[in-house]
Amino acid sequence: MLPTVVMQRAREEFLDWHGTGLSVMELGHRTPEFIGIAEQAEANLREILSIPDNFAVLFLQGGATSQFSMVPLNLTAPGDRVDALYTGLWSGKALKEAGRYCSVSVAASSEHNHFTAIPNTSDWQLSANARYVYFTDNETVHGMEFQQTPKTGEVPLVSDMTSNFLTRPIDFSAYGLIFAGAQKNLGPAGLTLVIVREDLLGNARQDIPRLYDYAFNAKERSMANTPPTFCWYMAGLVLQWIKQEGGIPVMEQRAIARSSKLYQLIDASEFFSNPVTTGSRSRMNIPFLLRDESLNNTFLKEAKSHGLVALAGHRSVGGMRASLYNAMPEAGVDCLAGFMADFERRYG
Amino acid sequence: MLPTVVMQRAREEFLDWHGTGLSVMELGHRTPEFIGIAEQAEANLREILSIPDNFAVLFLQGGATSQFSMVPLNLTAPGDRVDALYTGLWSGKALKEAGRYCSVSVAASSEHNHFTAIPNTSDWQLSANARYVYFTDNETVHGMEFQQTPKTGEVPLVSDMTSNFLTRPIDFSAYGLIFAGAQKNLGPAGLTLVIVREDLLGNARQDIPRLYDYAFNAKERSMANTPPTFCWYMAGLVLQWIKQEGGIPVMEQRAIARSSKLYQLIDASEFFSNPVTTGSRSRMNIPFLLRDESLNNTFLKEAKSHGLVALAGHRSVGGMRASLYNAMPEAGVDCLAGFMADFERRYG
After folding, report:
1. Candidate from B1, B73, B211 with C-beta closest to A62
2. Which band of pLDDT confidence, cut at 50, 70 and 90, is reported for residue A41?
3. How far is B122 from chain A (nearest CA, A)?
4. B226–A21: do the CB atoms touch at under 8 Å?
5. From the candidates B83, B137, B160, B213, which is the catalytic residue?
């Protein structure tokens, strides 16, 4: 979902961007027009997130999944150790891929509680010599989100923020690298953001595909080859919108308001339940179960007739899941909450 | 440049695709709606190009440049030999990258004639044991295009068709793999097509990023991770347009008509010149020089005031370059030809 005003603006200038007579899709990536779009997007991102000057911002292709390989191929040598927090489907995929390239030590896992609670910091078994500590800031499928920045001393954090990027402030002093696929809070699928501390660049393995080298992409200012220009432009419009709305503080307030409303309804209900412990709950993705699972299909069908779609949980966990990204208006949550309360009255 | 009717259609359904109330950008990639869009695009591509059933079609990210690595990482083992035809900037880049992974033998080169003629077939020094013969079907920067499918016996061809894809028929019996970045003739930047013979799959090197394995992408039907959905949709609209216009035969006739008009003007002129020999000339990209190079900036400035943009040659060769892709209407060529004739009258 993208903000309505962004979509309207994109539609207005779809055939003629700023009087050029061309669509953004038709602008060459090395034209002054597109370079202006690209630089403005980066400047707005840096301002919104207060990204320090010693971090490079890369606009890449490949999706977050590409980063599961790219991170270890750039930040480790064979045999190097990496710590990972295993808190759900996405961190699981990432650490499996990283394990092909370096020694991954699971410092903490939520597997024993079926991914319903982020392990207590005191139980983490961090290695002294880890290159970085990897975690998934928000687990989309399991609906868990880190509420604080993990503390790992001198060892830099690397985090997949695909599904909660731009919804809370980031303390860059703790991070070596952050990445995010665009398609949740930033723009259309096909663009991947990487924000990386510059002193970590330049150690990529020699044999990797050239486009998998962060330093090369940084040197070429993300234009080593033709970038996904239209996605980059759309991300720029979203960033402008966030800035105009009041930046990250406003996005965060709204995320808290939206998710609180739904958690309150679920916790007050005897019909719906959310399995995640209070301190680990995501503001973005709220999985919930119906007491009577045989009503799942009825729930989905009736929801659709109210214009409420994409509510089925991931196939690996079943049940339902509400996703409340930045573009979701409060009215959307109210509509869902109203429908759920009514459904419970009728079937509960 | 994209066809006007395609852009208008995309604009019409930009906010509401087929009554769903959602933009295509907002459709999840695993929804029946998007899977329908994706499958229709592939079906139309297969029909338009008569792609045999034993070829897989992949819709990937990363651009043609990513294929410079992906091809050798999938189709060779270390030490394997590959033949390459070196005919310009793009084949040069590709064979340099391939050389990092296997033994690349330059079977023929146009370097000695400054990339103005494709070497005679009789002069090619093909290896008996090459895994494949690599070539760039159309060299965008130097304006050279293969007029016939290279004959290499049992050794399969691998070709970068980024800049002339969908403008002429392809004899798949000679090919092992074809790839094309979308942004010339197929859709917006951010999508890369790979058409690969299925018996060549499954031999990727073990240590490559998982997303660089063709077999894995084929198995996952190009949805191993979130694909660039909007670009895929736009490509689908372009393919539908090509089909409605009459398919590849019509695209080819138009390409011949457009380019012939410009070559005739250049050859008849004493002011403009094209350095490429007749049998090697591209239908897509026509580089040309002004007799008096000090007029280059005047030419570009006056052209722009006639709405003729993107005419500067690549920085590596200088001069001018007209690009005449499928979406270019005949009126666009007429406008350019008229301006050039007038410019010669006034300055020649």
Report:
1. B211
2. very high
3. 34
4. no
5. B160
The string of pLDDT tens digits covering residues B100-114 is 999 999 999 999 999
Q: Where in chain A are all domains bearing CATH 3.40.640.10?
A: 4-245
A334 catalytic per annotation: no
Q: Do B197 and B210 meet the contact criterion of CB atoms below 8 Å apart? A: no
User: Which of the residues A17, A184, A232, A241 is marked catalytic?
Assistant: A184
Q: Is the separation of the CB atoms in A86 and A109 below 8 Å?
A: yes
Query: What does the pLDDT look like over B184-236, one tens digit per residue?
Result: 999 999 999 999 999 999 999 999 999 999 999 999 999 999 999 999 999 99
The percentage of residues in chain A with a pLDDT greater than 90, rounded to a whole number, is 97
Taking CA B284 as the corner, what is the angle to CA B281 and CA B286, rounded to the nearest 5 degrees? 60
CATH (one of 2.30.42.10, 1.10.10.10, 3.90.1150.10, 3.40.50.720) for B247-347: 3.90.1150.10
Q: What is the pTM of this model?
A: 0.96
> How many other C-beta atoms can be found within 10 angstroms of the C-beta atom of residue A128?
8
Dihedral over Cα of A209, A210, A216, A222: its sign = negative
Closest residue of chain B to A66, computed from CA coordinates:
B211
- With an 8 Å Cβ cutoff, is A335 touching chain B? no
Name the segment(s) of chain B with CATH classification 3.90.1150.10. 247-347
Asked whether B134 and B95 are in contact (CB, 8 A), the reply is: yes
A317 lies within 8 A of chain B by CB? no
> Average pLDDT, stretch B277-290?
97
CA angle A300, A302, A305 (to 5 degrees): 110
Q: Find residues 166-225 of chain A whose CB sits inside 8 Å of chain B.
A: 181, 183, 188-191, 207-212, 224-225
Q: Among partner residues B26, B62, B210, which is closest to A211 by beta-carbon distance?
A: B62
A62/B62 CB distance under 8 A: yes
**pLDDT tens sequence across A139-156:** 999 999 999 999 999 999
Look at B25 and A70 and tell me if their CB atoms are within 8 Å: no
Going along B9-147, which residue ranges are E strands? 55-60, 81-86, 103-109, 133-136, 138-139, 144-145
Q: Under an 8 A CB cutoff, do B225 and A66 touch?
A: yes
Tokens of B255: 């390409």
Contact B230 A226 (CB under 8 A): no
Per-residue pLDDT of B4-39, as tens digits, reads 999 999 999 999 999 998 999 999 999 999 999 999
Q: What token pair was written down for A250?
A: 């406003």
Question: B191, A190: Cβ pair inside 8 Å?
Answer: yes
Q: Is A90 a catalytic residue?
A: yes
Instruction: Name the strand (E) or helix (H) holding B43.
Output: helix B32-49
Contact A201, A215 (CB under 8 A): yes
Angstrom distance (rounded) from CA B216 to CA B206: 12
By 3-state DSSP, what share of chain B in percent is helix, strand and coil, each rounded to 5? Answer: 40, 15, 40
Residue among A234, A248, A231 nearest A326 (CA): A248
Is the per-residue pLDDT at B146 higher than 90? yes
> What's the rounded Cα separation, in Å, for the pair B116 and B144?
7
CA-closest candidate to residue A143, choices A303, A335, A320, A270: A320
**Which of A210, A213, A217 is the best mutation test for B, with the most CBs of B within 10 A?**
A210
**What's the complex ipTM?**
0.95
Q: What is the pLDDT of residue A161?
A: 98
CA distances from A327 to A113, B234, B325 (A): 32, 23, 37
Mean pLDDT, rounded, of chain A: 97
Collect all residues of chain B within an 8 Å Cβ-Cβ radius of residue A101: 207
Domain B4-245 grouped into CATH 3.90.226.10:
no
Residues of B in contact with A66 (CB under 8 A): 61, 209, 211, 225
